[in-house]
Amino acid sequence: MIDLDRIGRDRLPALLRAMPKAELHIHIEGSLEPELIFKLAERNGVKLAYPSVEALRAAYAFTDLQSFLDIYYAGASVLQKEADFFDMAWAYFEKAAADNVVHAELFFDPQTHTERGVPIEAVILGLHHACQRAHAEFGITSRLILCFLRHLSEEAAFEVLEQALPYREYLIGVGLDSSERGHPPEKFARVFARCRELGLRTVAHAGEEGPPAYIDSAIDVLKVDRIDHGVRCVEDPGLVARLAALRMPLTVCPLSNVKLCVYPSLGQHQLPALLEAGLVATVNSDDPAYFGGYINDNFVQTFEALPQLGARQAWQLARNSFEASFVDEALRETWLRRLDEVFAGAG
Ligand code: HPA
Ligand code: ZN
Is 8 a member of any domain? Predict the structure, then answer.
């Protein structure tokens, strides 16, 4: 038995960085750093609205989800060729390896690219080859989750699903992202039903800016395996109890929540309450290039800001990330053993 309560707070930052973890909520287009945006813009002859890397970075002051999405979609316009998608994902995997991420499930937004005439093959194969290389070089396992843009129609979601089907073997599941308010999960009931028939796992952003009712309908109507964000569940105690009883994972992204003004500061984040309620909460980076940090930055800064979070919660969050991941049992058991070894060594 590991004595987690004996591990002092001074040891936390190093432990949070060293512990093996899975990242389950990362929009790969949100890992595109300004330097790479400029490099790809030059390579592809794309004219950017900002004169320099510094000017672009200075524009990353968001007031809500939509103000971020406008800049995020503009940044993604430099992605045109398979090599661009590979380079973007490879840059992420280098960061992930340094952060001791052993498994990553990457979201990607094909409609952002196919609408500009980029073939979906270039998107999926570029990302897939980066995933293969991450396994060969770093031992990181990874999966791809195709996200539908919820501000577009369900018909458009069906179209992109059709285009993706020749590459079905490279996908573990589908998700739902982009502007949440006014676009409830019900809008995508039929396309999610089709995806489940195809054997795809399902996740959806819900309860980030949208109301707690969207979390219920993501579960009831879309029949999701995980909720992305979900932090607004705390407004409904009955929903919190339901999520706990279902062991429905929440992929929480603390720095994102502060940057998009869901919480005024990390010190007011509800992560401790979610863990206290027994929820399968995890910590993730969402769009690290835009929100000020990768997964370890999220862990270290959140634990620094919240004194209720200690070694026990660190262990629980890493454990939850493996429980919530879409991998087979044998691999999950291997990681859980490795996690316990790291904490036993620190105790
Ligand atoms: N929320 C919704 N859609 C997104 C996000 C997010 O945080 N990041 C990229 N697309
Ligand atoms: Zn997200």
Answer: no
11 in any annotated domain: no
Threshold 0.90, pTM exceeds: yes
- Which ligand is closest in space to the CA of residue 209? 1
Q: Which ligand is nearest to the CA of 291?
A: 1
pLDDT per residue as tens digits for the range 238-263:
999 999 999 999 999 999 999 999 99
Backbone dihedral region for residue 248 (phi beyond 0: left; psi -120 to 50: alpha; all else: beta)? beta
Give backbone dihedrals phi and psi of 222, rounded to 5 degrees, phi first: -85, -15
Backbone angles phi, psi at 204, to 5 degrees: -155, 140
Active site residue 137: no
**What tens digit of pLDDT does each residue of 108-162 get?**
999 999 999 999 999 999 999 999 999 999 999 999 999 999 999 999 999 999 9
Under 8 Å between Cβ of 108 and 127: yes
pLDDT in tens, 173-225: 999 999 999 999 999 999 999 999 999 999 999 999 999 999 999 999 999 99
Task: Give the structural domain span for 115.
Answer: 20-346
CA dist., res. 114 & res. 167, Å (int) = 15
Determine, yes or no, domain membership for 26. Answer: yes
Q: What residues pack around ion ligand 2 (CB closer than 5 A)? A: 286
Q: What's the gap in Å between 147 CA and the centre of ligand 2?
A: 10
Q: Ligand 1: does its nearest atom lie under 6 Å from the Cβ of 30?
A: yes
Rounded Cα distance, 76 and 287, in Å: 12
CATH number of domain containing 203 = 3.20.20.140
Ligand 1, from 23, 26, 27: best to mutate by most atoms within 8 Å of Cβ? 27
Domain count, the chain: 1
Helix (H, G, I), strand (E, B) or coil at 134: helix
